[in-house]
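Record passed on here:
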Amino acid sequence: MSRVLQIHPANPQPRLIGQAVERLRAGAAIVYPTDSSYALGCQLGDKAAAERIRHIRQTDRHHNFTLVCRDLSEIATYAKVDNQRFRLLKAATPGPFTFILQATHEVPRRLQHPRRKTIGIRVPDNTIARALLAELGEPLMSCTLILPGDDWPLHDPGEIEERLRHDVDLIVDGGPGQREPTTVLDLTDDAPRLIREGLGDASPFL
């Protein structure tokens, strides 16, 4: 049975943030709010928790996780970012965007796209998510909370608890979320390429 932590969306209680991070470090698979939809997440490199998330989503081992980062400086540890890409990222973060970038050697091989050696990166504009990342001190491996057969991500904490109470260790309830996932932009070529249109407005970058 999942534990539910009700965390204030504007002023996250440090004690509860600390409890959530303790669970992550102990191998938990969690649900947490972002500035787009709710997401599934686990600690970077936690193979068992990642497999549980794949099982929930019913995806295979080739499904790519996103690295959810605190800020631009953390992105540069895990992705190759030149001046042009840095300016684009600076204009769009924090925000509801996921960027496909060339991965650095800091990214575990199994998290990279098997042929292109790329990784999805994002910096959320959500107070709870940023508090979790600051306390954890490293990115979260994450993916959108959209369940098999659903057309949209889950956004209501009550429904999330009802449907996932036996599948995840912790649900961070930050109130109702958005129904849309992030906008995904591929930055591996000379010009940005729209992969998925979501909550973020991609028009300034295309």
In short: The helical segments are 14-25, 47-57, 72-78, 83-92, 127-136, 157-164.
